[in-house]
Amino acid sequence: MGKILITGASGLLGLELIRCAKKGGYNVVGTYNANPDLTDKSCRNLKCDIGSSGSVNLLDKKIGKISAIFHCASMTNIDKCEKNREACWLANVIGTRNMVGLAKKHSAKLVYISTGSVFSGEKGDYKENETPDPRNFYSWTKILGEEATLAYNKGIVVRAIPIGIHGIGRPQANFLEWLIDSVSNNKSFNLFNDVYINAISANTFAEILLKVPKVLKTGILHIGSRDKLSKAEIGQVVISKFPNFSGQAKLISIEDMPGNFVSRPKEMWLNVNQALKLGLEMPKLKDELEMILNY
């Protein structure tokens, strides 16, 4: 694979993917929109608002010929997406369509990062060919991004739930970062005991992602841990690493949340048998948590 473009270079996954690609000898260019301080300074990173066609055209003039795009950039905070639908639409739908257009210009492969929350969450163990059924605006925009990607003959959709701690440092922005921040600062909080995920560390996910275009020409692929845990169980693993924690972690059902709480799926875990058949190794979630927390 020649030069690759990675969007979302200031995010958790984008940063890990850039570092992993560099170690693998790839010629890599990253893009960011608002947070250059959170990018890997040893890599070439370019500012780009993916929701703006003009910004993407300017990026195209700067990057030279590319062979693949790993599209990690996305607006992911479910509550913010619900309240700021225009911004979410621009980032997740228009931005992905613009990346498809850029990939077509270069006849490059496009790997689009989607999410397990595109499903209703009523049963879990979702396979790639099952019908999405979004529960919120964020999930709906991710489905539209999937459709744009799959309309391109070199487009690959990878669904996963990456977790981890940002390698440079940022305000808590994902479930695990929020959890660690809460526990380390002795805050009390609620944990859902009926929301299950088979998340994967951003580090392990990045290593697997670089292999995906080599084993899959187009289509959808689910990546994740081989086992699932509830968010409450994940919380207990984190709390065990902080013996002086003096706050309270209350275990509740997601059904106990107030009516203005944005709907979220319960059973978000994905079936990863197809990835295993392709020769990709999937980890255990507890091992992933230990790796992240002991880093």
Fold and architecture overview:
- The chain is of the alpha/beta class and 295 residues long.
- It has one domain (1-295): Rossmann fold.
- Helix content is 38%, strand content 16%.
- It is built from eleven helices and 13 strands.
- It has helices spanning 12-23, 53-63, 78-83, 85-106, 137-150, 175-184, 202-209, 212-215, 231-240, 273-277, 285-293, and strands at 4-7, 28-32, 44-47, 68-71, 109-114, 155-159, 162-163, 189-192, 196-197, 200-201, 219-222, 229-230, 249-252.
- The strands form four sheets. Strands 3-2-1-4-5-6-11 form a seven-stranded parallel β-sheet, sandwiched between helices.
- The longest helix has 22 residues, at 85-106.
- The model has no long low-confidence stretch (mean pLDDT 95).
Put the structure in a nutshell.
By secondary structure, the chain is an alpha/beta fold. Helices cover 38% and strands 16% of the residues. The chain has one domain (1-295): NAD(P)-binding Rossmann-like Domain (Rossmann fold).
Features:
single chain; 295 residues; alpha/beta; Rossmann fold; seven-stranded parallel beta sheet; 11 helices; 38% helix; globular
List the helices and strands and how they pair.
Elements: E1 4-7, H1 12-23, E2 28-32, E3 44-47, H2 53-63, E4 68-71, H3 78-83, H4 85-106, E5 109-114, H5 137-150, E6 155-159, E7 162-163, H6 175-184, E8 189-192, E9 196-197, E10 200-201, H7 202-209, H8 212-215, E11 219-222, E12 229-230, H9 231-240, E13 249-252, H10 273-277, H11 285-293
Parallel strand pairs: 1-2, 1-4, 2-3, 4-5, 5-6, 6-11, 7-10, 8-13
Antiparallel strand pairs: 9-12
Helix pairs in contact: 1-7, 2-4, 4-5
